[in-house]
Amino acid sequence: MGQVTAYLLYEDVATALAWLSRAFGFKETLRFADPDGQVTHAEMDTGGGEFMLGQPGAGYQSPKRSGHHNAFLHVAVDDVDAHFERARAAGATILSEPEDKEYGLRGYRSEDPEGHRWDFATQLREVEPEEWGATRPRN
Asked: How are the residues of the chain apportioned to helix, strand and coil, as percentages rounded to the nearest 5?
């Protein structure tokens, strides 16, 4: 098995890169543009992982435009409360404020300007899955 890397589609990749950097602190690591200067592919570092961004063409509609969501990205951060304040100050749509979860995380959920959903969390303590009702498959 290999590593999974998320690839998010944006109607305006250049604007997404700037906003994701300002609001969430991600760092742009790669950018491709077409001859007209439109960003067609980019990559960002989350500080412990990475993801890719692309512009799929005129027929694509972002989650915000289509009104449909089918995924969200979970990102571990060192200080979720400070991260929340940064995202809120940058205008992120806050879907849930930071709260402690029974499975040992403190987290919040937000949405970027094109409607992609992001879940940020800090691990507070180790919790065995069975402590909050989860099970592990038997091999």
From this structure: 20, 35, 45
**Rounded CA gap, 112 and 105, in Å?**
22
Task: Provide the whole-model pTM.
Answer: 0.85
Residue 94 has which token pair? 């806050």
What is the tens place of the pLDDT at every residue in 68-102?
888 889 999 999 999 999 999 999 999 999 999 98
3-state class (DSSP) for residue 30: strand
Distance CA 85, CA 22 (A): 12
Structural domain spans, the chain: 7-56+71-132
User: Pairing mode, if any, of strands 117-123 and 72-76?
Assistant: parallel
**Which residues, at least 6 apart from 127, have a Cβ–Cβ distance to it below 8 Å?**
102, 103, 104
Element (H, E) at 74: strand 72-76
Superfamily of segment(s) 7-56+71-132: 2,3-Dihydroxybiphenyl 1,2-Dioxygenase, domain 1 (3.10.180.10)
